[in-house]
């Protein structure tokens, strides 16, 4: 079976968990004897190919107003124009046509289509090839990929999202299958009437995370090192975490790792102040980061499709405090391997920090339960098996029609 994977980015260019998971899937399928090809975006024009760890990867120059993965944030009007074009970017179809003609895949697995737009679906349909869409975020529902607006996740699409996604729901019903990386993200799309009358699947992402150290045992009165790792942006709840850590009075420090838009990072640093209890570590090696904290916090304000960072923390024998939203509820079990907090009740985060600082018996019990609770998510073989089954089913059904 020959498979073309389409995503916004591909290694070594990583914007988030989607790219990490995709590389594992692609290499896993190739290891099983399938032919795999990747089509991704690049800031410069034209189409070129290269080899990345034995995988053929095409890079297509984005035809839109700016490169959306840069650190600087363009002005509001420029962003609006970008999204207007991205609702259906006809100019990106030629790249897809060229790669389809050159590679002749049996099936196309679409992942994050930001920059590509759903115009690629029509080009693939025109070639008579079945499409499996994998849902990593809310891009097909909202131009900001989160449905997050004015400090909270919207219960419904706003007027702009409806306008910029007017064709998407109907077009989604013409695909061969859809895969959600969690029941939460799949359910949100089904709620809006997407992907009706086509096969639905849930395949949780996975990571190969060795047990780097045994569970910690905290002692009474010991300081607590709290960690956050990820994109530094409002939707991830970084401001909420900083404010609650400062107000909690927890003895210890907060280590914030990751990067973001320059103005966001500056805002968070100003909010943290100069007391020394809150450290901005920038980019760090995740294994080193987890080895040097006692507790991971995932304070996302939006409906995280899965929240793989929580899995990484749990796999490293760390209790996790997480938002009671989205796919985080599928990995963090309140009172078992961590504590779920409600962003609508801001003090719930500070209270959770205090509990795990003061109640060492609670902390130690959660630390012991952490890694065993995410065994499913530590099997890359399981993830690849499930995707292989989905793609094999789709190609067989297509051949029989």
From TrEMBL:
Occurrences of domain Glycosyltransferase subfamily 4-like N-terminal (ranges): 16-208
Molecular function terms from GO: glycosyltransferase activity
Keywords attached to this entry: Glycosyltransferase, Transferase
One of the Pfam families matching this protein, by short name: Glyco_trans_1_4
Organism: Parapedobacter pyrenivorans
Domain of life, per lineage: Bacteria
Taxonomic lineage: Bacteria, Pseudomonadati, Bacteroidota, Sphingobacteriia, Sphingobacteriales
Keyword Heme: no
UniProt-recorded name of the protein: Glycosyl transferase family 1
């Amino acid at each position: 079976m020959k498979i073309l994977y389409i995503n916004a980015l591909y290694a070594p260019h990583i914007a988030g968990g989607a790219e990490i998971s995709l590389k594992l899937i692609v290499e896993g399928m190739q290891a099983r004897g399938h032919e795999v090809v990747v089509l991704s975006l690049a800031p410069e024009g034209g189409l070129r190919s290269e080899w990345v760890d034995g995988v053929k990867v095409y890079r297509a120059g984005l035809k839109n107003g700016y490169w959306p993965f840069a650190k600087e944030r363009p002005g509001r009007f420029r962003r609006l124009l970008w999204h207007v074009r991205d609702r259906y970017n006809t100019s990106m179809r030629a790249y897809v046509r060229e790669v389809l003609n050159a590679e002749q895949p049996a099936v196309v697995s679409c992942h994050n289509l930001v920059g590509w737009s759903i115009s690629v679906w029509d080009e693939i349909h025109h070639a008579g090839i079945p499409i499996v869409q994998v849902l990593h975020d809310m891009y097909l529902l909202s131009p900001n990929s989160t449905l997050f607006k004015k400090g909270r996740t919207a219960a419904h699409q706003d007027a702009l999202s409806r306008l910029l996604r007017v064709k998407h729901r109907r077009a989604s019903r013409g695909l061969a299958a859809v895969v959600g990386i969690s029941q939460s993200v799949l359910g949100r799309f089904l709620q809006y009437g997407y992907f009706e009358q086509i096969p639905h699947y849930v395949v949780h992402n996975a990571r190969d995370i060795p047990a780097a150290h045994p569970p910690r045992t905290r002692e009474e009165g010991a300081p607590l090192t709290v960690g956050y790792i990820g994109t530094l942006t409002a939707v991830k709840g970084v401001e909420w975490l900083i404010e609650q850590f400062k107000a909690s009075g927890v003895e210890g420090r907060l280590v914030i790792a990751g990067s973001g838009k320059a103005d966001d990072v500056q805002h968070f640093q100003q909010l943290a102040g100069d007391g020394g209890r809150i450290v901005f570590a920038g980019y760090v090696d995740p294994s080193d980061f987890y080895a040097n904290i006692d507790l991971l916090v995932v304070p996302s304000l939006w409906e995280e499709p899965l929240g793989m960072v929580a899995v990484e923390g749990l796999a490293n024998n760390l209790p996790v405090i997480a938002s009671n939203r989205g796919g985080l509820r599928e990995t963090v079990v309140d009172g078992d391997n961590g504590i779920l907090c409600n962003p609508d009740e801001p003090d719930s985060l500070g209270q959770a920090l205090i509990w795990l600082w003061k109640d060492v018996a609670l902390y130690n019990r959660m630390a012991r339960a952490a890694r065993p609770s995410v065994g499913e998510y530590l099997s890359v073989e399981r993830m690849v098996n499930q995707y292989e089954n989905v793609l094999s089913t789709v190609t067989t059904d297509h051949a029989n029609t």
